[in-house]
Each structure stands twice: as C-alpha cells, then as structure tokens.
Design a protein that fits this description.
Chain lengths: 330, 330, 330
C-alpha cells in the first residue's frame, strides 16, 4: 500500500493517511475511507492492525506523529536566495547571502538579516533590527527599529513587532496626555510564531520578550514590557497588558484579557474570554471575568443560568418564612 | 423639487433626502430639514405625503431603498485599467486586461486576477492565488498563495486571507511545539466583504470557506477549516475557532467568540461578546459566556446585578429560619 | 552626580534615574540601585532628600516628570526631509518640502502631506487625503481617500483610517446584503495616536471623529460615525459600534465593547472587557457585561463565585422551611 496524501478522517480517500486521537471523532474514525490511520496504542484492533479494511498504525502520540509526517508531505516552499532588484534594501544593511529578500520588501539602515531568512513583499525590517536564521516575514509584516527576532520564527502578514507601548501621563494643567517615550525593544526568541495582525509592543525601557518556542495566533495584543516564558500558547484575539509576566507552557484561550503588572505561573491555563485581574499560581486553570478557578467558574455559570428561578425561589421562601413567623407569635 | 444629496435625518439640509426606518429616531424625523424622507408604508401622513413641509416617500423598506439610492449617488470610484509600471507583477501571473494593478501592488507567480479587479498599492496576491472579477483589494490587503477570492469581493486594508491556521502538537520529549503544516487554502465565495485587519486562515487540509454574500467587519478572526454559510454577518472583533461550521444568515455581534468544532445552525444570532462553547440550533438567539438562550441571559443578567442584595436576603432568611427552628423545639 | 539614563526601579543601575509614584512598588523603590529617584512630595525622607544613598527628587507628579525627562533622553529620531526616489508619489499630490516620504510609501492623487510629516515605507495616503504637520505614518499604515489626519498624530504600523463602515441592508427578495455606500470620511484631530492594527472606519455620511489628544492603543475598532471627545484613552482591543458618541476624557479598558447609537458622558471609565449596551452618564465607572456601575459589578462578581454554595444554602433552607411548615400544621 502506498500513501500519497494526508487528510482528516472524514475527508480521507483511498491512498490517504489520517489520524485518530480524540474519542470525540469515533464516528468519523469508523466511517473513514482512509487507507491507513495513526492510532494510539490503546485503540483496540483484533485483526492484526486492520479494521474495516483500514490499516491501523499504532503510535504513542497519533497527533504528533501526524504532524511530523505532515511536515514530510508538505515541506515549506523553497525560495531562491538573493535580493530582488525591486527590494528596498539600504546600502548599510547586512543581508546574508543565502537570505531571500523579495520585491517590495524593506531592510532599513543597519539592519541584519540572517541566513536563509525570507522577507516577503511589503515586509519591513527597521533600522538596526535583527532577523534570525531561517526566519520568515510574510507580506507586510513589520519589525520596528532595533527589535530582535530569533531564528526559525514566522511572522504572518500584517503582524507588528515593536510598535510603541501605550504609555501616557495626563498633564492636568496643560490638558494633554504626555507621551512616555517607548525607548526599549521587543525581542522574539527562537522558534516563535506570530499570527497575522498580531502586535508585540516594544518596552518603555528594557525589553518585551516572547520566549523560545511560544506560538501566538492572530490579532493578539502583547503590551510593553510583557514577558512570556517558553513554549506558551496564545490563542487568537487574546491580550496581555503591560509588564505582566507569564511562565512557561502557559495556555491562553481566545479573547482572554490579562491586566497589567501580574505574575502568571508556569503551565497556567485560561479559558477563552477569561478576564484575569490577579496573579495566577502555577498549574492553575481559570475562567470567567473576573477570572476564578475554572471548576468554580463552570459551576457558577450553571447557577447563573438559573438565577431568575433562584430569585423566585428565594422570594417564595421569604413569603413562607413570614407566614411561619406570623403563625408562631400568637 | 430636486434632490442633490443624501444625509441622516439630523444632518440633512434642504435639497437632501433621508430615511426614517426606526421609531427610535422619531424626534430626528420630526425635526429634520430634509426635503424628502423615505418612510415605511405604515408611517402616518395626512397631507398627501407631506409633513411639516417634508415630502414623504412611502416605500416597503425605507432602509433598503436608501441603500439602493445611495449607491446611485455614491458610485464606487472608477479606475483606469492596466498594470502600473511600478506594480510588482510576476511574468508568469495572469492579469485580465481590464483589471487595475496600482503601483506597489504585488501579483506573484502563477496568480490570476480577474476582469475589472482592482489591486491597490501594497496589496498582495500570492502564488497561484485567484482573484475574481470586480473584486477590490484595498491597500496592503494580503491573499496568500493558492487562496481563492470570488467575484465582487472587497478586502479592506491590511486584511489577510490564507495565513497559517494555528495548529501545533507538543512534543513532550523534545519540548517543542511541532507545527502541523497548514496545507489547505482559504476560499471566499462571491460578494464577500472582509473588513480591515480581519483574518481568514487557510485550512490545515481542505478549505476554510466564507459563503456567498457573507459580510465580515474589521479585526475578525476566522480560524482554519471554519465554514460560514452564505449571507451571514460577522461584526467587528468576533472570532471563530477551528473547524466550526456556521449555517446561512447567521449574525454574530461584536467581540463574539465561538469555540472550535461546533455546529451553528442557520439564522442563529449571537449577542455581542457572547462566548459560545456548544452547538447552537438553527434560529436560536444566544448571549453571555458561556452562552445561553438570549432571553434567559437577559433575565439572569438582571439578577446578577442584584446578587449582593440577594445574598443578604438569603442570610437574613437563614437567621430567621434558625430562630423559628429554635422556637419550635422547646 | 551625573545622570546618564533612565530605568524602572528594579532595573536602574548607578548613574540612572527612576521614579516612584505607586506605593505598590515600594519594595522595588527600597531596593533600587538608581542614583536618583523622582518621588512625590509626600514621600518621607529624613536625610536631606537622600535615602539609602539614593538622591530623592521631590516633584508634584513623579510620573509626569519622568515622562517629560524621558522625552529629553529619548527624542524622536530625526529624518532627512525629501521624497525618496523609490516612493510612489502621484504627480498631483502636494508634499511639503520638509516632509519625509520614504521608499515604498504611497501618496495618491490630490493628497496633501504637511510640514515635517514622516511617511514610512508601505504607508499609504489615499486620494485627496490630508496629513497634518509633524504627523508620522509608520510602515504600512493606511489612510483612505479624503480622510483627514491632524497635526502631530502618530499612526502605528498596519493601522487603518477610513475603511468602509459596516453597513448593509438585507434585500429579502434578492437574498443579498445590499451595501450602504460609506461616503463620509474619518477625521483624526491633532495629537491623536492610533495603535498598530487599529481601525477607524469612515462615516456613512458625514464624519467619524477622534478628538484632539485622544490616544488609541492597538487592535482597536472604531466604527462609522463614532465621535470620541478630546483626551480620551482607548486601550487595546476595545471596540465602539456605529454612531456612538463619547465625551472628553473617557477611559476604555482593554477589550471593552460598546454598542451602537449610545451616548457616553465625559470622564466615564469602563473596566476591561465591559460590554456597554446603554448610555452612560458623565463621571460614572462601569464594569461587566451588560455593564453596570463598577462597585456593584465588583460586589456581584464576588457573589458570582459563591453561587454554587448559595444555591446549596437556598435548597437547604427550603427543606428546613418545609419541615417547619409540616411541624406547624398538626
């Protein structure tokens, strides 16, 4: 049997390989037309690894195996090295000879672009900024001056690294918001992915840091002086306010908001749309606004839906107690 | 009487036409300086369609009539066909002779741009991408490689079609998030509008699809493998997680979040900021986080505001019941 | 003593100046290595303005003093005036001789760019748009046709001024959403800052207005015909729906959402993630979704976390009251 493609269980055809990692998709697994399916070691199969004509390939972590196989089937596109004559590269920029700078990409004075880096059209590397080896800037991604992007990073279209942090002080006499210069930088460590239209602001002083291997989805806001530890996951439209620090392996659901100047411990998880206003201890899962421990939040949200009923019961009880009190006195 | 312009009720001057469709604006209607007002058929008028000197034009749907009239008064700008000498069009791209490709716009190898399409400066059509007839890409809008945009679509500035879906699997031994290649595409069917800085991610495998005539506001996130039916409305800053399917005519309020792998039925409505974590049946309106039926949510939210009071009442009742119990025993 | 740099309390080294404005940072203040610290007039110091070897500089408003000092230490970068030969400036555009138009920046026909304005690469000034004196458009910032940006404004990367407002009317017979042309403009008054990937939509008719000195963070959505008064603060990912009016000095926390057609009074404050569905009176602070007075919201949120407990108590009470009622009857 030759496998010539990968597909999800429901869409896989003959000759394709799929994976089954979540019992939620049991029906799709049983109905799949795939020729082979990566399954966990505990998945039962009587017939020498075959089930309904599907070859089952037992692996420790089917999803991980699928991801690695998928990387073989769908390698990143190759790019011809060199600077396009229509690229806008400053004479005093340093671009590695194996890097690709496409038409319309900008590399400003004093910037450095590492080996095999790829700058798509409209992407922007500001003055004295550093782009690491094998890093890709998709179209119109922007890295402001002096900011640092590590190796093997991916910046998706229209993402922005190093815009000014949001810092103003009201002058009550002149009636103006006085800008606090944002003189620091933003630094993405190695293997960071930054989604489309996501923003990592530069620090007021010092650095805003995204830790090694952290992955950030689209439309995310990372404010000035935030520090995110390695291997964290930030889902779409989440926002982290200034100076907040996250440990490693933290997972933020979509549209989560975190207030400023907080400490979020290692491996903390936040349910989508949580609003976090206090420090969170390592290993905790929280939810809701203001966020509380997730189990508590779930139980409270069940009662929330019953509140009108609960109010009615309370009022009824009040009436009955008043009756009892009346009955007692005479 | 000649009408030479359109304006909202409060701003309309003599010679201008306005519309009155919502009783909420009755005061503005009564005070308007407009020469003519489109009104619904049930709007009362004694004087042969005139009221305080204003000509009332009765139509079935004043807002719709206003929209159509407005299209006559404010036609889209005309553009000279042709490829600017300063556009960055690959030799192997196919641009229709009636299309407009402005200075600084990018059309990559193998891409196709349809008749009368308009590519503003800085917009980007990736390799082998397809742009349909009469579609407009505003400045810095990006369509990644192989993605498909139908006819008569509008992509506003800095919108992104086809960035990678957010898919990683943690390798617990190597301690890295392994990227699942996002080898599918994003497809916008005909007559779709995509707001500024909105993102439609490409599918992991297969397609992310925005149905015919669906309109998407600014800063919206559509994750990989989502499918939105035709004629839906997605307000600003809403987000839909991976693989979720929406029916036709669905309306999402601003900042709504929907979890992944859900089914949202036809004509479902979601109140602004809802957080939807479960399937929603066709025709339902939901609100809140986690979202519940909208009427229930409204009633619960009223009680929510009374919770401190309610707690006090409960404590008081408890005390009184304890008193009663004491009184009973002796 | 010579001061040669500024730094936060924890990071400051010898020779650097810091500030201490919030008692929350008392520990950092006591441990700082800074040579001098700006402090409020009420900060105690026995030793002639010195404390642990640190020179204390008493000022009325330490944060404001720090901001002004910081502007001296970190002045904005100087740019060489003139139009880059690689800029895309239309022959019929008017660019002031002291303005800087960098390579890849676009100035369309009939647009005007004021004195000392700076247009970074990929930024876009649409037809007949106006850019005021000393205003900076960072890379890939877009100003649509006819829109107006005042003096001393800053538009960060990928921000968008003047994209179409989101206005459609469903034609129930043709089954299409008919677009209401967005024929108005967006106007930013003087001294406005607009964050990266933030959007200010143009008005349907008339103007969307951001008042003088108002500061807007990243990823913010301002819908058509919104009017924000002067000196307001809009934090990241907040969104304001169409035609809503804000007074002066309004402060929106992150991820706040405001419904359309509302009036928000002067100096109103909204807690992060608030969802505001009704008018808000001047001077009020609100929180929650739907938003209520902030103190009430805080108290209610405390009870919310106790809801499961409260439900249990209520049920217990019900049982006890039923017992009492039984006991009474015989």
């Amino acid at each position: 049997m030759q496998i010539d493609g990968l597909a999800p269980l429901e869409e896989a055809a003959k000759g394709q390989l799929s994976f089954f990692a979540n019992s939620r998709y049991k029906r799709a697994f049983q109905a799949t037309q795939a020729s082979a399916v990566l399954v966990g070691e505990s998945t039962g199969s009587q017939n020498n690894g075959r089930k309904n004509g599907v070859t089952l390939v037992k692996v420790q972590n089917p999803q991980l195996a699928f991801a690695r196989l998928s990387q073989l089937f769908y390698p990143p596109p190759a790019h011809v090295a060199g600077i396009s004559p229509e690229a806008l590269v400053h004479a005093e920029a340093m671009v590695h000879s194996t890097a690709t700078v496409m038409a319309g990409a900008v590399v400003a004075r004093g910037a450095t672009v590492g080996a095999r880096a790829v700058l798509h059209p409209g992407s922007h590397v500001g003055e004295r900024a550093l782009i690491g080896e094998d890093t890709v800037l998709h179209p119109n991604a922007v890295v402001y001056d002096r900011c640092v992007v590590g190796a093997r990073c991916t910046l998706h279209a229209s993402s922005v690294v190093g815009a000014d942090g949001f810092g103003f002080v009201l002058d009550p006499e002149k009636l103006e918001h006085v800008k606090i210069p944002q003189a620091g930088i933003a630094r993405l460590e190695d293997d960071v992915e930054l989604g489309a239209c996501s923003c990592v602001d530069r620090a007021t002083l010092g650095e805003t840091v995204i830790g090694r291997g952290t992955k950030i989805d689209n439309l995310v806001q990372i404010a000035h002086n935030v520090r995110i530890g390695p291997l964290s996951i930030v889902c779409a439209q989440a926002g982290i306010s200034g100076s907040t620090q996250l440990g490693h392996g933290v997972v933020l659901g979509g549209q989560v908001g975190i207030a400023g100047h907080l400490e979020i411990g290692d491996l903390v998880k936040m349910a989508a749309q949580s609003g976090v206003a206090q420090d969170v201890e390592a290993g905790t899962t929280v939810g809701g606004t203001p966020a509380i421990e997730a189990g508590n939040w779930k139980r409270s949200s069940v009662v929330y839906a019953q509140l009108p009923e609960l109010l009615k019961e309370l009022r009824d009880l009040k009436r009955r107690v008043a009756q009892l009190e009346k009955g007692k006195k005479p």
